[in-house]
Design brief:
The protein is of the alpha/beta class and 208 residues long. Helices cover 54% and strands 11% of the residues. It is built from 9 helices and 5 strands, in the order E-H-E-H-H-H-H-E-H-E-H-H-E-H. Strands 2-3-1-4-5 form a 5-stranded parallel beta sheet, with helices on both faces. The longest helix is centred in the C-terminal third of the chain and has 17 residues, at 153-169. Bound molecules: 2'-deoxycytidine-5'-monophosphate. The site of 2'-deoxycytidine-5'-monophosphate (DC) has 14 residues, from helix 2, helix 4 and helix 8.
Length: 208
């Protein structure tokens, strides 16, 4: 069973995907980490994340060690990942890996922006996990503060809105809810309530 989870930054996709993967005994792929690793590789080389040639080369030769770097989660890398993600050559370079991961038995949970629409439109279950920009910014702000990183709420909110606009507005594989995806708004839900809703959707898909 392939479970595709899409949605904007900070909506709780990551938390839900990890919990689902654990519950079902499936591997989980955080596809955002691939774009973040591409961006980090470009930044480390002193390159411009909007330069298609440099970004595509980085995506094609990703070093798996970069995927474990704590630097992947910084605000700077988050913004740059959204820039490299708008480059079609970067998206094409990362596509086969994501599809191969999804199709390995017994199944997989993948989260990102275009899983249900482009990467695995054949997924058995598609969820679109969202929350208001204010709630998402509040969560990110708290996360950064807990990690000891300086954070200003208004700036986090502005960054989230800019990232939403770029991710949803790009020409190639923009972030959007697949027609057959079930939307879960996590604004007023706890992680366990979100998991319960997702499991209900999966159960219903399995008994169809
Ligand atoms: O989920 P995240 O914040 O780690 O994702 C980082 C960026 O990567 C995000 O701004 C857009 C891009 N991305 C994408 O374009 N497609 C995906 N499937 C996953 C992430």
């Amino acid at each position: 069973m392939i479970i595709a989870i899409d949605g904007p930054a900070g909506a709780g996709k990551g938390t839900l995907s990890k919990a689902l993967a654990k519950h079902l005994g499936y591997p989980h792929l955080d596809t955002g980490a691939l774009y973040r690793a591409t961006a980090l590789t470009v930044l480390r080389a002193g390159g411009d994340p909007e330069d298609p040639k440099i970004a595509e080369t980085a995506a094609r030769s990703l070093d798996t060690a970069v995927l474990d770097s704590p630097d992947l989660r910084t605000a700077e890398v988050g913004a740059a990942s959204s820039q490299v993600a708008a480059i079609p050559g970067v998206r094409a370079a990362l596509l086969d890996f994501q599809r191969g991961f999804a199709h390995r038995p017994p199944g997989a949970v993948l989260d990102g922006r275009d899983l249900g629409t482009v990467v695995v439109p054949e997924a058995d279950v598609k969820l679109f996990v969202t929350a208001s920009a204010a709630v998402r910014a509040g969560r990110r702000h708290q996360e950064l503060q807990e990690r000891g990183e300086p954070s200003i709420y208004a700036r986090v909110l502005a960054d989230i809105e800019a990232r939403d606009a770029r991710d949803a507005g790009r020409a190639d594989a923009p972030m959007r809810k697949a027609k057959d995806a079930v939307e879960i708004d996590t604004s007023d839900l706890s992680p366990s309530e979100v998991l319960a809703r997702a499991l209900a959707v999966i159960e219903a898909a399995g008994t169809e």
